[in-house]
Amino acid sequence: MVGLLGLGFVTDFLDALGVGSFATTTTSLRLGRIVEDDDIPGTLNVGHAIPSLLEAILFLLTVPVDMLMLCTMVPAGGLGAWLGTSFVVRWPKQTIQRAMALSLLVTGILITLRQCNVFQSDEAATSLSGGFLLIAIAANFFIGSLTSLGIGNYAPTMAILYLLGLNPKAFFPVMAASAALILPTAAFRFWKSGRFDRRTAAGLTLGGVPGVLVAVYLVREMSVYWLLWIVVGVLIYSSQTLYQASLPKKES
User: Fold this and answer.
1) Which is nearest to 177 in space by CA: 149, 159, 153, 205?
2) Using alpha carbons only, what angle is made at residue 153 by residues 149 and 155, rounded to the nearest 5 degrees?
C-alpha cells in the first residue's frame, strides 16, 4: 500500500504541474503489473477523481482567472466529452494521435524559441476575449471529445492557450476545472460497473491529495520563466507518448 500511496503522490503532484496523471499512472501500473489492463481506465478515473476536484478548487482559490473564460471553456470541454464521442471515435485514432503529437512538438519549439529570445512578444494576457475566446471554447470542446480516445486535456489545452497569448499561470485553473468536470462523471460510471481495482484506486486517492497540495503551492510561487520550461517539457513528453501510442502494436 505504501507504494500505491507514493504513486498517487507523484502522479498527482506532476498532474498539478501540468504533466497530467493518466499517462504516468498507466505506465507505472503496467510496468508493475499491478492492475489488469481492462481495469486500468476505471482505476485511473476513480483514483484520480478526488485529487482532480481538489486541484481545481485550490487553483480557483489561489490563481487569478478570468471568469468569462472559465465559465465558457470548462462547460465546452464537458460538453465535448459528453457529445464528442459519437463523432470523434469514427476518426482514425492513429491519425489523431500523430497530428496532435506534431502540433504539441511544434508548440514546444515555438515556446523554446521565445524563451531563448529568438523573437520578442508582449507580456502574455491573463484573459481572452472576442475571436480568441471563441477559438479557445471550440478548442476545449474538441479536446474534451478526445478523452474518449484516452488523450488527456492538459497538454493540448496548454498548447492552445499559450498560442492564443495567455499567461502560463492562467492555464492551470482552466485545465484543472475541465478535468474536475470530466473525471468524476467517468468515475461514477466505472464505480457503478465495478470495473476498477479498489485497493489501487484508494492508494492513488490518498496519496494524490497531499501531492496536489504541494504542487499547487509550487505553481503559485513559481516564476513564469521556469513555468514555461516545464510547459515545454510537458509538450515534448506528451508529443512523444502520443506518437508511441500511434505505432502499430507488436504481436506478442
Assistant:
1) 153
2) 115
84, 25, 37, 47: which is closest to 186 by C-alpha?
Answer: 47
The pTM of the whole model exceeds 0.85: no
Cell of 146: 478526445
C-alpha 161/C-alpha 79 separation (Å) is 19
With CA atoms as reference, report the closest residue to 241 among 17, 9, 21: 21
Task: Dump strand ranges (E) for 29-104.
Answer: none
Q: Which residues are paired to 125 by β-bridges?
A: 166
Answer yes or no: are the C-beta atoms of 56 and 182 closer than 8 Å. Answer: no
Q: How far is CA 218 from CA 11, 33, 121, 178, in A?
A: 15, 32, 26, 21
Q: What is the largest CA-CA distance in the chain?
A: 53
What pLDDT digit, counting tens, does each position of 81-119 carry?
777 656 655 667 677 677 767 777 877 787 787 678 665
Q: Name which of 171, 208, 221, 189 is nearest 54 in CA terms.
A: 208
List the domain boundaries for the chain.
2-246
DSSP letter for 118, please.
S
**C-alpha cell of residue 56:** 481545481
